[in-house]
Specification:
The chain is mostly helical. It has 14 helices and no strands.
Length: 298
């Protein structure tokens, strides 16, 4: 028993690393699928199917939830829908996935800021050091577009703000609920809501090609169902702050995958902006970054 407990942190690190790779691959899967599907139809279908699959794994726990629990989970799902709606529209308009992924990672930095504004929490000192660095990085990215924000940039930035709000609400409003059924509820609500919005405002294609369906399947099975299942399990083996350090790597993997798949390169301003944002994330989590490095060095 003691031996298995000692291995749990390493197992959690490896699983979370896999989660970041799956999340990064999800950017590629989604971008490819958007060539053959409207954005809201795609994200609604993706998360509805993923939510239903996760519900199968969490069926016993779902049956034990009260109506109040279900309502709380569904309420957070509404916020999740907004965050993902802005994210997919930002991705749809994005011409540079690596840049978009780094802007999206600002949500991690904003979590303690939102916690202070809404719940009166005191952010660590490192947050106030990291915030101006991150803003400087975001400013450099906007300068790269010629002193203006491109649609993809402000859409992804809005998504990051909503994700930071979502994380805060998740940890406070529904902290007593089991993670797996909660995730299943939220993903299903996202799928239903964004699917309905898509039906109202988007023209649906007469048919969807096999290649697009393949990218949709990869998004559902790998980037959603498997990713969230592994993330829920791995987060049970470590602390939330420790997990957040590893999950920051999603933006790095996304940039590397986009470079390999699409041949993306970064201008000097883009590289400087993304580097500043990532540096801000490391500063914000410096205590846990240092702890992880020291543990790995042993």
């Amino acid at each position: 028993m003691a031996d298995s407990l000692e291995r749990s942190p390493l197992r959690a690190d490896l699983l979370l690393l896999t989660v970041t790779l799956l999340a990064a691959a999800g950017w590629i899967f989604s971008k490819e699928a958007l060539d053959g599907m409207p954005p809201l139809l795609f994200i609604g279908t993706r998360f509805l199917l993923a939510g239903l699959l996760l519900a199968l794994f969490g069926l016993p726990a779902l049956r034990r939830l009260t109506r109040r629990d279900l309502a709380a989970g569904a309420g957070v799902g509404l916020l999740f829908s907004g965050a993902l709606g802005f994210w997919i529209m930002g991705l749809y308009h994005s011409n540079h996935l690596g840049e978009s992924a780094f802007i999206n990672s600002l949500g991690i930095l904003l979590v303690p800021i939102v916690a202070k504004l809404l719940f009166g929490d005191r952010p660590p000192r490192t947050t106030w050091i990291a915030l101006p660095i991150a803003l400087a990085g975001f400013a450099l990215l906007s300068l790269n577009a010629g002193l203006r924000l491109e649609p993809s940039q402000w859409l992804i930035a809005t998504s990051a703000v909503l994700f930071s709000l979502l994380i805060n609400v998740n940890t406070r409003v529904v902290r007593h609920l089991p993670a797996l059924p909660l995730t299943a509820i939220q993903l299903t609500v996202v799928g239903v809501l964004l699917g309905l919005v898509s039906a109202l405002i988007e023209p649906w294609p007469a048919r969807i090609g096999g290649i697009t369906l393949g990218w949709l399947a990869a998004s559902v099975l790998l980037a959603s169902t498997l990713r969230f299942f592994l993330q829920v399990y791995a987060q049970g083996l470590t602390t939330p702050s420790h997990a957040a350090v590893i999950l920051m790597l999603e933006a790095v993997w996304t940039a590397l995958l986009a470079a390999a798949w699409y041949g993306e390169t970064m201008s000097l301003l883009q590289l400087a902006g993304c580097s500043l944002i990532f540096a801000a994330l490391l500063i914000n989590r410096w205590y846990w970054v240092r702890k992880l490095v020291l543990r790995t060095a042993r």
